[in-house]
Amino acid sequence: MPTSSATKSARKIHRWWLYGGAIFGALILLSGSVATAAYNSAGTRIVRGVTVAGQPVGGLDSLTAIHRLEKKWADFQSQAFQFQAAGRTMTILVTADTASETEVTLGAVDFDPTVSVNAALSFGRRGSLWQRVRERTSGFVGRPHELGVVNVDGASLGQLLESKFGDLAKAAKNAALKFGAGDTPEIVPSVASQTFDYSKAVREATIQARRLDAQPVTLNTITATPAIAVTPALTKLVSAGVNSVLDRAPLTLLQSDKKWTINRDQFKTMLGFYGTSKTPRLGFDLAATADYLNTIATDVNIKGQNAKFLMVDGRVQEFQPSAVGITLDIPATIAAMQSELVDKEQSSAALIVTEEKPLTDTVATNQLGITELVGTATTSFKGSPTNRRFNIGYGAKLLNGLLIQPGQEFSLVKALGKIDGAHGWKSELVIKGPKITPEFGGGLCQVGTTMFRVVLNTGLPIIERRNHSLRISYYEPPIGLDATIYDPKPDFRFINNYTGPLLLQTAVDGDNLTFSFYGTKDGRTVDVPTPKVYNRVAIPAPKTIEVDDLKPGETKCQTPGHPGADATATYTVTKADGAKVTQTFQSHYNAIGVICRVGKKPATKPKPTTNTNTATSVTNTNTAL
After folding, report:
1. How many angstroms separate the most distant Cα atoms in the chain?
2. Radius of gyration of the chain from Cα atoms?
3. Which of 212-215's residues contact partners 24+ apart within 8 Å by CB, and which partners?
4. Who contacts 338 (Cβ-Cβ below 8 Å, separation ≥6)?
5. Beta strands in 323-426 (DSSP E)
6. How many Å apart are CA 27 and CA 23, to the nearest integer?
7. How far is it, in rounded angstroms, from Cα 117 to Cα 79?
8. Backbone phi, then psi, for 300, in 5-degree steps?
9. Cis upstream peptide for 358 (omega within 30°)
10. Is a pLDDT exceeding 80 seen at residue 216?
């Protein structure tokens, strides 16, 4: 009997199911074989496909991988980042952007080959069996997995770039007003702004650092048109409305019981435009008005001061009450002048000021409860240069007598205030990148380190501390209990968790700086062990960098070199009820050799040559012996 079409179709479907099942089974077997091969192939080596800092380490044992990465890291450290903009080049050492025997801040890049290899080795060996199989198979079939741990201090890098190239930036200038012959108003054309994309440059440098590769980075220029440009609307406004606005003079500014009068001639120097290019309006020019307000700010501003107390013969005596600081808010004042004097056509306007409350308020001496020494620490700054010694003493003077209330978070950077020449600080030479430059406040890290140690000895919780990037002799021994500060970051911050206030007393005696906290003990005990030091690295070979700011061939070297190391310290505070609180401070110090800066020699142009070859006879002078 002939086979029906339905039966034939059923047989075909059946065969396809058989084929599909066979193929599926084969795939399962193949996947299982791949997974088994991948799992077994790892052995004690790093899983295939794994990279560290962009370098392939898959299939290597950990020791070989560490040696390769250490060499790559050493090569990278011998290089420098180069940033270029508007014909200027800035060179930054990748592992220590600031290095001197007096002050050190963090380096730009930090990398630990051993830590990174350990992370790479853990890939395919962590978590559940399913996770281990999945990770090993993924690497086995060629999928890349980056396990490097390269840390880049992007914030510090960006600040350095802005300080180096900031003077090349141009601020946008709106169209302005001036008066020509016969008091005729004229328009000064606008100017577009020019700045640089520091964030993108830092991102490019970060990408390079995470591959342990440093290539020149060009800063992109960013331009922006001003808010008010010369337009027909602006021209029409000037021709129609200037005199009517000037006729509102004289105008009066008020603050408390003081007043200042703006006559017509002064008003002319401050008159300008605001709004937009499409809808310009006459009013106060921001720059010119700010210049005028700065001249009266000295009569308005009041410097705030913290409450300070002095311990004399075991008793606390108040010698400086707290005072609220008052500062003229220039942008807000200009806005108020525009609103009141121009828009509302008033004859007077009040200055806008901001108030800054003191860090510590005045407290009656009989409420303090300060009865005894709670903690003290001393560091030596022997051998410091003159300006560094001055800054250490000046910083100690500013902090002496500060009262830190219970529960108060204390910021050392905030307590010291603005660090510049106008506020009494002296400059001290530091090295930034390969360039030696004077900087105000050199020596403040001595203050930071001393504060760190007195806080430890007092048993207070620390919420921000950063070690120097290099080992500095002033703070050793021990290694690992230093603290660097720099405005605005890094800071040193802690909290007073005593039930009463703490009085800070500072003293400079010869080459020693001493900080002491007075208050009332609460039964807590403190254990500050000597830090454990490991990963010691000898001082590397000297480095030479060619620069443009020295005469050709002129050499200046930063000495001495600095050995590297790691240190860890865990301190324990035991409360009166037996409760223990611990904090661990990890410190990593880069090794850096002597850095010599050498002025680039100008490229020599090849001398033009003249063909002087002439046909001459040649005499054989060889003699047979």
Report:
1. 126
2. 35
3. 212/53, 212/54, 212/55, 212/72, 212/73, 212/75, 212/76, 212/111, 212/150, 213/54, 213/76, 214/76, 214/79, 214/80, 214/81, 214/82, 214/94
4. 274, 283, 284
5. 325-328, 348-350, 353-356, 372-380, 403-404, 409-411
6. 6
7. 23
8. -100, -45
9. no
10. yes
β partners of residue 440: 427
Structure tokens at 394: 């000046």
Token pair 């700054």 in the structure block, residue: 381
**The model's pTM:** 0.54
User: Is the predicted pLDDT of residue 121 greater than 60, yes or no?
Assistant: yes
Return d(Cα 452, Cα 483) in angstroms, integer.
6
Length of the chain counted residue by residue: 625
Token pair 């630990």 is found at 112
Kindly report, residue by residue over 220-237, the tens digit of the pLDDT.
Answer: 999 988 888 888 888 888
**pLDDT tens digits for 570-624?**
999 999 999 999 999 999 988 888 878 888 877 666 555 554 444 433 333 333 3
Rounded distance, CA 479 to CA 417, Å? 29
Under a CB-based contact definition with an 8 Å cutoff, are residues 219 and 169 in contact?
no
CA 86, 87, 93, 97 dihedral sign is negative
| Helix, strand, coil % in the chain, rounded to nearest 5 | 30, 30, 35
Tokens representing residue 155 in the block: 């914030």
Bigger pLDDT: 434 vs 369: 369
Residue 153: which residues within 8 A CB-CB, separation 6 or more? 97, 106, 107, 108, 109, 110
| Strand pairing class (493-495; 462-464) | antiparallel
> Which residues, 6 or more positions from 586, have their beta carbon under 8 angstroms from its beta carbon?
566, 567, 568
